[in-house]
UniProtKB/TrEMBL annotation:
Name the record gives this protein: Follistatin
GO molecular function: activin binding
Domain Kazal-like stretches: 122-179, 203-257
Compartments, as annotated in UniProt: Secreted
One Pfam entry name: Kazal_2
Keywords for this protein: Disulfide bond, Glycoprotein, Repeat, Secreted, Signal
UniProt domain TB: residue ranges: 42-103
Positions of transmembrane segments: none
């Protein structure tokens, strides 16, 4: 049995008396330095993969509590405090780290953010799935998205916006995407315009008068594909909105007479 040295046998510590307070203090310091607690540092990972290994290193040298406190659904942790070389071999050659411990086995405490909700996968791990709040009116009839694709209804478009992480994706007009502005009712202040690929879009045409020397979106004369010279980009856009067709720019400067 290992016995701690007495206080009087340790003069280098400057503890020369044997009072109860001094003895308790020395005993505490001896336990701390002679019997250190094991390190709780490990590695935090993005997810536990289907092969049971941790994938996607997020942070090294963290405890499980630190790794799992963020409320992300798929986070996982490994207890080993390993070298950078071994981490590299795990990531490149072993398809992940062994002894992977998922932070959660249910949706309790998971924060998915707006338009998403937590679901449990077949393996029992939680994940955030796209689940936008849709009204009944948003499930009726196809819509044409700003990406030029037809969606079964607006709710399907909202799910695609979430899944593709494209916050600017929105419904342009009701019905299938078309090659003509005929019978297209654009919402609000937007107007129908045929782009250079022949697809119909609802765009907002500025009603502000164009500046004489540019409009901040490009200055100087431009030659349109229709053979006409426009004072600047603003005038070209105004003409396109007025005629309902995009006007491609062939080159900067005035058009050359033919």
């Amino acid at each position: 049995m290992h016995l701690l040295p007495s206080v009087v046998e340790m003069p280098c510590l400057g503890l020369l008396d044997s009072s109860p307070f001094t003895s308790l203090l020395f005993l505490h310091l001896s336990v701390v330095f002679l019997y250190p607690s094991p390190s709780a540092a490990g590695n935090c990972w993005l997810q536990k993969a289907a092969n049971g290994r941790c994938r996607g290193l997020l942070q090294s040298g963290v405890s499980r509590e630190e790794c799992c406190r963020h409320g992300r659904p798929g986070d996982a942790w490994t207890a080993q405090e390993v070298s950078s070389g071994l981490l590299f071999r795990w990531l490149v050659f072993s398809k992940g780290a062994p002894d992977c411990i998922p932070c959660r086995d249910s949706c309790e405490g998971v924060q998915c953010g707006p338009g998403r909700r937590c679901k449990t996968s077949r393996r029992g791990s939680p994940r955030c799935a796209c689940a936008p709040l849709c009204k009944r009116s948003q499930r009726k009839g196809p819509v044409c998205g700003a990406d030029g694709r037809t969606y079964r209804h607006e709710c399907a478009l909202l799910r695609a916006r979430c899944r593709l992480r494209q916050p600017d994706l929105h419904a342009q007009y009701a019905g299938h995407c078309r090659k003509s502005c005929h019978d297209i009712n654009c919402p609000g202040p937007t107007s129908c315009l045929i782009d250079q690929n022949g697809d119909a879009h609802c765009v907002e045409c500025s009603r502000r008068p164009c500046a004489r020397r540019g409009d901040g979106g490009g200055s100087g004369a431009l030659c349109g594909a229709n053979g006409r010279t426009y004072r600047n980009l603003c005038h070209l856009r105004r003409a396109a909105c007025r005629h309902g067709h995009a006007i491609p720019v062939t080159h900067t400067g005035p058009c050359q007479p033919t």
